[in-house]
Structure formats: C-alpha cells, structure tokens
From TrEMBL:
Annotated InterPro entries: DUF4314
Every DUF4314 domain range: 6-72
Protein name as annotated: DUF4314 domain-containing protein
Highest taxon in the source lineage: Bacteria
Lineage per the UniProt record: Bacteria, Bacillati, Bacillota, Clostridia, Peptostreptococcales
Provenance organism: Geosporobacter ferrireducens
Length: 76
C-alpha cells in the first residue's frame, strides 16, 4: 500500500465526489467485481481508497496505488 499525500487525497476527492459513477479497470482481489463493472462512489476515505457501491452488489473499495477505476458519465 502506498502512502497518499494531503494534496493527492484532495485531488481524489475532487475527481471522485460522492454520487459520481465509475467503471472498474483493475482490481487484484479474488472477490473483486468483474472488470468493466460500474458503480456509484460513496466517498474517498482518509487513505485514498475510493469507496464504491458496485452495481453487482459488491462494496469493495478501489485501493489507492493498487486498483484502477475511471469516472464515467452514465445514466445507468
């Protein structure tokens, strides 16, 4: 796990505000949603993990420096 700076954390919170939609690009976890799964951001925690409510029902966070997602404009 990488340490996140205050500036990086602020940038993440600006880029991924609660309610925005994301698509999973990479997550190395046996219980991860499938790549391409979409979800709604709940928030960004103090260590930079993007907390997501995935459309598949999962709630695994996107870990800073490990996993990847991208913001999308999706009406579901």
């Amino acid at each position: 796990m990488r340490i996140i700076s205050k500036e990086q954390l602020l940038n993440l919170r600006e880029k991924y505000p609660a309610g925005c939609r994301v698509e999973l690009l990479k997550m190395d976890d046996i219980q991860a949603p499938r790549i391409g799964t979409k979800g709604t951001v709940v928030g960004v925690d103090d260590i930079g993990s993007i907390m997501v409510r995935w459309d598949s029902g999962s709630s695994l966070s996107v870990a800073f420096g490990e996993d990847l997602c991208r913001r999308i404009h999706d009406d579901r």
